[in-house]
Amino acid sequence: MNDEQALVITTDFFTPIVDDPYTYGAIAAANSLSDLYAMGARPILALNIAALPKTLPVSIGADILRGGADKAREAGILVAGGHTIQDNEPKYGLVAIGLVHPRRILRKGGARPGDRLFLSKPLGTGVVTTGLKRDLATEAEVAAATASMLRLNATAAAIALAHEARAATDITGFGLLGHAVEMVRQGGVGFRIAYDRLPWLPGARRLGEEWVYPGGAHDNRRYFGPHVRFDSGLAEWEQVLCFSPETSGGLLMALPPEQAEAARQEALARGQDLWEIGEVTENGGILVTSNW
Predict the structure, then answer these.
(1) Over the range 138-165, which residues count as b (16 or more CB within 10 Å of their CB) and which as e?
(2) Domains, the chain
(3) What is the pLDDT of residues 118-171, one digit of tens each?
(4) Contact, 8 vs 36, CB < 8 A?
(5) What is the pTM of this model?
């Protein structure tokens, strides 16, 4: 727009992944806003996108929109209208609009060998919500996944910017390794990720070992798998788990090594989870080791 401002516009929406309509709306809104935070942008406005069945009670549709509006308000913005259509299955999300300084945009490419890789949310929302649909996840496991999906990535983005992140992305439908492959391709580098450092939501590993995966996990594995190598010590279910789609996941960021400890300390002070899960290498592709 000018020397000080660039506009970021993005959209995302999906079908219900939890039973409560208000919570579904809030999660969908948090997920939509994550694309702004992943670029270092500050949200300024949002629009609703909703597809609702003709037979859906008005109160349920209202709860979905209210959940989205409240989550947007938490992010400091308003939902200024939007558009709805009729459809057989509910779908909801936001058009999210934000501002960022042109020289402070966080991009997928830009990581340098030696940078440290950090993740700001635990993994496993895809298998837990699939477990919910199949009545295989416990109430506690669903509650933990829901709390994670509801959390905005605003603080994680602020930490990434404050500590000179060279590259970042949010972990959503392509899973951890799919989005990591995007960073590797665009940066012309490699990643070494330590499986034993990966944070998992309660129940995620149990459900993964029971092969309770959303269909996207296998699609991701087929498409991104040729760019990933695994230690022989990792079981097949552990490998698939790293490809499983996430909803409203955390930020994956590459920080200069000299900024790593300061970022950890700031995250601790601000109550923000931040796990160091690997490093950037010169070799192309991704190596997932069983331990550090």
Answers:
(1) eeebbebbbebbbbbbbbbbbbbbebeb
(2) 6-104 (3.30.1330.10), 116-289 (3.90.650.10)
(3) 999 999 999 999 999 999 999 999 999 999 999 999 999 999 999 999 999 999
(4) yes
(5) 0.95
